[in-house]
Amino acid sequence: MSVLYRPTESPFAVVEWQPDVMAMLDDHHLVAWSSRAYRRLQFSATLQQFFGAQRDTDVCVLHGRFVTDLESFCCQLERLLPGPPLERRVDGPSGVANLLRSRHTFRGHPAAKYRYIVWNDADVLLRSDVHLFGELVDALAGVAAECEFASDDLLLLQRVAFIGGPALDAYADDKRGQFQAWRPDTIGEPFWKLVTGLDEPPVMRYAIDGLA
């Protein structure tokens, strides 16, 4: 029986873009945006598939269309990461940040070395509650930096790809937003700056339309 090869239709002129994007994620989180929903969809789906083909890698996908508050964010996160009960809070011993530190292993299988979190339609929560969005970005970037630079555990490289529309890019351009600055602490320097030694979150902006 013969198999006919049928190339997948793609909205992108650039074919082999996935390795370049993955290389960016070696040192940065990614804010990928486009004004066209179909391009965002194809970018995300292709990137998820590429991540899934890598060795020692966990891929966690947040369906941002349904993330409008802390409850809905936590409902998705606790179904992606096994761990202790998740309270509806960002910080604290039972909050989002603590669950992001969890690392589940199976007998006979090595622990994952990479964890990619793909947050689709991240701008939905941004428009709904910009303060909460900033808190979650801060926790995601902070825990990732902590795991990489301030933990004695086996290295886990954790990166987030935030995918959304122009509002996401506009927030990334704001020097006060949490893509460019750690959340300030009321009693001194930002918590994550003290923990990780990084002056700011390592985040890179990426225009999906540049692939077209």
Kindly summarize this structure in a few lines.
The chain is of the alpha/beta class and 212 residues long. The protein is built from 8 helices and 5 strands.
Written description of the protein model:
This protein has helices spanning 18-24, 37-52, 70-77, 96-100, 123-128, 130-149, 166-172, 191-196; strands at 29-33, 57-63, 114-120, 157-164, 203-207. It has a five-stranded parallel sheet, sandwiched between helices. The protein is built from eight helices and five strands; from the N terminus they run H-E-H-E-H-H-E-H-H-E-H-H-E. It has one domain (18-101, 111-211): P-loop containing nucleotide triphosphate hydrolases (Rossmann fold, 3-Layer(aba) Sandwich), CATH 3.40.50. By secondary structure, it is an alpha/beta fold.
List the helices and strands and how they pair.
Elements: H1 18-24, E1 29-33, H2 37-52, E2 57-63, H3 70-77, H4 96-100, E3 114-120, H5 123-128, H6 130-149, E4 157-164, H7 166-172, H8 191-196, E5 203-207
Parallel strand pairs: 1-4, 1-5, 2-3, 3-4
Number of helices: 8
**In the CATH classification, which architecture applies?**
3-Layer(aba) Sandwich
Distance between the termini: 36 Å
Largest sheet: 5 strands, parallel
What is the CATH C-level name?
Answer: Alpha Beta
In order across it, which strands form the biggest sheet?
Answer: 2-3-4-1-5
CATH topology type: Rossmann fold
Question: What integer value in Å does the Rg equal?
Answer: 17 Å
pLDDT averaged residue by residue? 91
Oligomer: single chain
Morphology: globular
Element-level helix/strand string: HEHEHHEHHEHHE
Classify the beta-strand content into a percent band: 15-25%
Structural class: alpha/beta
Low-confidence stretches: 1-7
Compute the number of strand runs.
Answer: 5
